[in-house]
Amino acid sequence: MPRPKFSAAGSARGSPASSPVPASPPSPPERQRLPHPAALFPAGDAALKAPGMRQRGAPRPRGAQRGGAAPGGGRGAGAWPGLPQPSRGSMAVSAAAAPAAEPLRSIFKKFLVMLCSLLMSLYVFYCLADRCQTLPGPIIAAGAASEEDEGGGGEFLGGSAELPPWQAAAARRKRLLQRLKQRRRRQEAAPGAEEPAGGGGSRAGGSGGGAGTAGTLALLLGEGSKRLPQAIIIGVKKGGTRALLEFLRVHPDVRAVGAEPHFFDRNYERGLAWYRELMPRTLEGQITMEKTPSYFVTKEAPARISSMSKGTKLIVVVRDPVTRAISDYTQTLSKKPDIPTFESLTFKNRTTGLIDTSWSAIQIGIYAKHLENWLLHFPLGQILFVSGERLIRDPAGELGRVQDFLGLKRIITDKHFYFNKTKGFPCLKKAEGSSKPHCLGKTKGRTHPDIDQEVVQRLRDFYRPFNMKFYQMTGQDFGWD
């Protein structure tokens, strides 16, 4: 038979209750205390590790993923219960991003280092090349050299007339510093006084201390002006014009074109604007110069130069006409070895002894004849005659005369020269833009061929009356007879 069901009071269902018994409220459940992990995992700390997790320092199993994942991927068997586990895709992304970030950082650091190194190298090179200031570079006349171009195409003390940019910039900076020092000394000696004409390299038309500083700043900014030359070396060929020009370029107040422009004899139709563009930039108070020895024997040159400026100062370097003619022939012989002998070119008829004055080497040495043409356009006081022989024996003395003639302070002295016994003429201890000694190029100091002494004597007899007239015209005895 079925067992009777009792109610919560203990009586069976369906039986009438004798008396209702109030039910007591249930007692709150007791707080359960969790056992200590050590009791649950008697194996020690190793038991706390989830299955599949390796001990610190232990090698990772092949194929295992970072973060305790099972080798098969997904949630490992030892994942902590109740914690969200990363999906297989997120774990792959994080695992790939971590090693990928390291090379990117390394590449970025290397790029920064390389960029900084490149910038520093460019800056150092820029400064070593003396390009931190914007001084104008030397402007050299273009075109090939001619026979009149002594040294060949603007060649000067040991090299090309156009200096490398860093040498030219260093020379210009040195000149500017010298001028600034001179002006500061004068200002300290006489504050507020005007700069005397001719003092410290200044001439009429020069600037005072404040204006000079502004002019220096303008030149540093590349704002120097190109002007037509105030002085020209007009001759003579093979007389020493190249040496004189290079010696003068040591002076801080002289700027000169390296090559021979040949404007007043060959390029006059190009105009004065073209001629001015050949000139270097100068400050006020500096002299612009050029040299073309063929001007002295060109009939049109005196009138053309006078039309440009009647105040142009002219310099003529003269030499014993016999020695000059032999030197002229030697230069031509080096370029054309098949030319006739000097003796055959000198005489129209060797038997009669008639000199051939149509030969340029002979004609150039008749100085008195050419000077007459120049005195028609320029006063004698505006022409300086430099002895080529004294320029070799006493370069500082002749340069002193030239500096006085140009209104320059005597800066070029004996300390700038030394005598080269091999070449037989003086050289500069420090040329413009260089700290090393330099002599004229290999085209200078050629060995002259042996000439019959009878021919030499006949030439001296021929030139003697012309030399005497030249002495009278210039008021100087050059001692050639």
General description of the model:
Residues 4-19, 44-50, 67-80, 130-161 and 190-216 have low confidence and may be disordered. Helix 12 (367-375) packs parallel to helix 15. This protein has helices spanning 37-40, 45-48, 88-128, 165-189, 209-220, 241-248, 272-277, 301-308, 321-335, 342-346, 360-363, 367-375, 388-393, 395-406, 453-474; strands at residues 225-226, 231-235, 254-256, 281-282, 287-291, 313-318, 347-349, 354-355, 383-387, 417-420, 425-428. The protein has 481 residues and is α/β, with parallel strands linked by helices. The chain is built from 15 helices and eleven strands. A five-stranded parallel β-sheet has the order 3-5-2-6-9.
Layout: helices, strands, pairs:
Elements: H1 37-40, H2 45-48, H3 88-128, H4 165-189, H5 209-220, E1 225-226, E2 231-235, H6 241-248, E3 254-256, H7 272-277, E4 281-282, E5 287-291, H8 301-308, E6 313-318, H9 321-335, H10 342-346, E7 347-349, E8 354-355, H11 360-363, H12 367-375, E9 383-387, H13 388-393, H14 395-406, E10 417-420, E11 425-428, H15 453-474
Parallel strand pairs: 2-5, 2-6, 3-5, 6-9
Antiparallel strand pairs: 1-4, 7-8, 10-11
Helix pairs in contact: 4-5, 12-15
